[in-house]
Structure formats: C-alpha cells, structure tokens
Design brief:
The structure is a single chain. The chain folds into three domains: 82 residues, no CATH class; 94 residues, DNA polymerase, domain 1 (Orthogonal Bundle); 173 residues, hpI Integrase, Chain A, CATH 1.10.443. By secondary structure, it is an all-alpha fold. It is 57% helix and 3% strand. Strands 1-2-3 form a three-stranded antiparallel sheet, with no helix packed on it.
Length: 391
C-alpha cells in the first residue's frame, strides 16, 4: 500500500471519528452550539492533518496539537472520547508547568522517589513547599550551607500563616526531611537542624473531634429527600459518610465495581493508610445507593459511583461532595461539616466496645496517633459506666 493511499485512509478514519464524536456529544447532552463549534474546529484540524501526512498514532500527540494553530479544545475532547473507545492509547494531556528548583532540591526529590518510594502526590506537595523555601533563601541572599534555624523559623512563621494545624505539621515534616538529607546524606550542613524544626505547643489548642448526638442524627436523616437526582445522590453520600465513616475523598474514589449488593459489602481501594479494605454495607446504605443508581445517576461510561448532574458527566471532586453533605446538614438546621459524620461513626464504634486499634482500621488511619483524638470521654458513655445511668 503506497503512502498516498495510507494517508487517505487515515483521513477517512479521522472524519468518521469526528462524526462518531458528534453523536456521542449529543448523547451526553452537549448543547447544539457547542457541537457546531467543535465540529468546525475539527474540520480545521482535519485540514491541518491532511497537509502534514501524519500517521494515525501521531495525530493525537501533544507535539501535533502544539503545531496546530487553531483552538485545541475540540481536539483534546475528541482525544478523550477516542481513548475511552480504545481507538488511541491515551488522550492529549497538557503537562502542568512546574517551577524549576535548585539542583540540590531536585536531587532530594529524586532520592525520595528512588530510596523511599514516596508517592508522587507527596512529591508534588513537597515541591510546592521547597519552591517557596528556595525563593525565600534567594530573596534574603542566604546560602543553603549557611542557613540557621532562626532563619528557618522566620520562613515557617511567614509561610505557614493561615494554614490549619494539621497542614502546618505536614509542611514542617517535609522541611525536616530535606534538612536531615542535607546533613546525613549530602554533608552540606555541619549540624542536623531537622530536630529543631518544631511547632508551637498545642496543649490548649487540642480539641476533640466534633460529632452529632442521637437527636441530631435523627433530625438529619428525617430531613433527607429522595425526589430529585441531586437529593438521591446526596442521601447516598450521607449514608456512606455516617454508616461507614468515609471521607469525602474516599467517597469520590468509589467505583461501580466496588459495591457488592449480593455480598452487602463495599471495597475501598484507596485509603490514607495505603491498605485497601472491605467493609460491610448496612441495609440503609444499600437502599440509599441503589435508589441513587436507579433514579439519580446519569448514564455514562464513567465507572465512578458519583457523577456530576449535568453533561458532560464527570466524577465529583471531594470539595463538591463535602459541599453537598454540608448543605444537607444545614438544611436540617445543623451547623456541621461532612467530617462530623465521620467523627460520629468513630464515637459509635467506641460506644459499641471497639478498641482503639479496631477504630484505627475501620477509619483507615495510617497512625495510631490519628486515632487517639477520638478517645475523649463521651458524656453519655461516662455516665453509663461511672454512674450506671443513661441520659
């Protein structure tokens, strides 16, 4: 087969893909004006491909889209569609720009990946802290080899302003790891500054997690509605947050395949402790999830359990899940957040006689220290045990 014939077949395949894409957009609820705009952009893209004699595998590459002078949105959308159909290996993705770091910082991140097998999301979060720290050193003309703990304290005081206590603790740990590396691995520091990077005392700041009492839970569930797709979706998420103690991020990552109605259990693939687990699914949760799947979930090729309400349908973000649950609670007259349901779940486990280690596993904590905060005395439990009476 000569090159001209091959090129002609590639163009025919591309034009057919565009037509299929248009039909898919219509089925997903894209407006007519959007479909018309995308088709015009893709006609321009087809003309561009004709002039370049591209192979099929090279059409949907980032290098190709960069050479294309027209708007890229329709082409990237088409690439996602073809990837889901299995007609190309992967969609076009624009890499997120990263601020360059001095070599010693980059070497440390490489060391974390290679030696400690640090997850990429932790590497990304560490990089954000190091970028600001490197800029601080440059701005104040401080050589890394000569940095003093007073200067690090000054940086942290400014950088951590406005962050939660938990976030401050994590960001300090990133910096401690880097300083320990400079001292023990690179010998760039004459003194190990890592142990000196500490936070302020938290004695008076330590507060037990907030949770809902029985009458408040009754009020919340009595106020749940099941008329619209939005209400069905929210009711299912509230049941999972309360009956299983799931975080918004864990609810977001649930797939259709993770829910087993026959076995009455749910599979959590992604937990903070990196230990997938299966949890029993109570009848109330089964009914709420089933009602959402039947009457609320949009038809889509996405396997995520919870999807957006309007096309193009996509998996929800943790923030959206938290927002939906919080609004539902406020509608019931409760000034609370989605995490209160998780804390209430932990309290229920403790009152049922579960040990701190069992609570740790059920909540998916990576450290027992994260679970200890749930051990404050519940007043109802205290009166029952000490005074042999019930409220």
């Amino acid at each position: 087969m000569n090159r001209q014939t091959t090129a002609k077949k590639i163009i025919i395949s591309l034009e057919q893909a565009i037509e299929d894409h248009q039909q898919w957009m219509a089925s997903q609820g894209y407006t007519q004006s959007t479909r018309k705009s995308y088709k015009w952009q893709l006609i321009q893209f087809t003309d561009f491909i004709k002039s370049g004699n591209y192979d099929w595998k090279d059409i949907f590459r980032l290098s190709t889209i960069k050479r294309f002078k027209g708007p890229p949105h329709a082409v990237t959308n088409l690439s996602r569609y073809l990837s889901e159909q299995g007609k190309i290996d992967q969609p076009i993705r624009y890499p997120k720009p990263s601020v360059p770091l001095p070599e010693v910082f980059e070497n440390y991140l490489h060391y974390r990946r290679k030696v400690h097998q640090t997850p990429e999301r932790t590497i990304t979060a560490s990089r954000r802290v190091f970028v600001v720290f490197a800029q601080y050193l440059e701005r104040h003309r401080i050589k890394l080899q000569k940095v003093r703990i007073e200067q690090i304290d000054a940086f942290l005081k400014d950088f951590l302003n406005g962050f939660s206590i938990a976030s401050c603790r994590v960001y300090r740990s990133y910096l401690r790891g880097f300083l320990r590396y400079l001292f023990s691995e690179r010998r760039l520091l004459t003194k190990d500054l890592a142990p000196l990077v500490t936070g302020p005392p938290l004695f008076a700041q330590k507060k037990p997690p907030k949770f809902l009492r029985k009458d408040e839970i009754d009020k919340l569930f009595a106020g749940l509605k099941y008329s619209t797709a939005s209400e069905l979706r929210t009711a299912a998420m509230v049941h999972l947050a309360y009956l299983l103690g799931l975080r918004p991020s864990e609810i977001r990552l649930l797939k259709l395949d993770d829910v087993s109605f026959g076995k009455a259990e749910i599979y959590l693939r992604h937990r903070k402790n990196n230990r997938p687990t299966k949890l029993p699914l109570p009848d109330e949760a089964i009914k709420a999830v089933a009602a959402y799947l039947i009457g609320g979930r949009a038809k889509s090729n996405h396997r995520a359990l919870f999807l957006t309400l309007h096309p193009p349908h996509r998996p929800l973000s943790p923030n959206v899940i938290g927002h939906c649950v919080r609004n539902c609670m406020r509608t019931a007259g409760l000034d609370a957040s989605a995490y209160w349901l998780r804390h209430t779940y932990a309290q229920n486990l403790l009152e049922a006689g579960a040990s701190i280690y069992e609570v740790k596993e059920m909540l998916g904590h990576g450290s027992i220290e994260s679970t200890r905060k749930y051990l404050h005395i519940h007043i109802e439990l205290m009166r029952k045990v000490l005074l042999d009476e019930l409220l």
